[in-house]
Specification:
With 121 residues, the protein is α/β, with parallel strands linked by helices. It has a single domain, classed as Response regulator (Rossmann fold). A five-stranded parallel beta sheet has the order 2-1-3-4-5, with helices on both faces. 35% of the residues are buried.
C-alpha cells in the first residue's frame, strides 16, 4: 500500500483529505503544520505529499524548498492544495517543483488525477 502525507494547518481539511485518500487505498497521515510534518517524514517517508500553501508562520512554498534540500525527498511528488485559485499561485507551484495544484475543496476527481499523475493509481 502506498503512503501519503497531508500537511495542512486546518485539521478538518487535513483529516477529510486523509479519509478520501484512504478510500482510494492510499494510507494517509495528517500533519497539522510544518513542524509535525518533519517528525513524520523522519519516521515514514511518504510516496506522495499533499501540501497546503497558506499556513501561518511557514507557508507551503517554504516547506517545499526545505523538502527539496532533503536527499530522500527530492523525488517525492508534492501536490499543492489551496483555496487560492490565482494564476500566479499555480505558476509559483510549478516553478517550485510541484506536481500539481488542487483547489480546495478537494474533489475525488482532482485527487484521482493527482494520484494518476504521480503514478500511484
Amino acid at each position: 500500500m502506498k503512503n501519503a502525507l497531508v500537511i495542512d494547518d486546518n485539521r478538518d481539511t487535513a483529516d477529510t483529505l486523509c479519509r478520501m485518500l484512504d478510500l482510494l487505498d492510499i494510507k494517509a497521515v495528517a500533519a497539522y503544520g510544518p513542524r509535525s510534518a518533519m517528525v513524520i517524514l523522519k519516521e515514514t517517508p511518504p510516496d506522495i505529499i499533499f501540501l497546503d500553501i497558506n499556513m501561518p508562520g511557514v507557508d507551503g512554498f517554504e516547506v517545499m524548498a526545505y523538502l527539496r534540500r532533503i536527499p530522500d525527498m527530492n523525488n517525492v511528488p508534492v501536490v499543492f492544495v489551496t483555496s487560492d485559485d490565482q494564476p500566479e499561485t499555480a505558476s509559483k507551484a510549478r516553478k517550485t517543483g510541484g506536481l500539481l495544484l488542487i483547489i480546495k475543496p478537494v474533489s475525488f476527481d482532482g485527487l484521482e488525477s493527482a494520484l494518476r499523475k504521480a503514478g500511484l493509481i
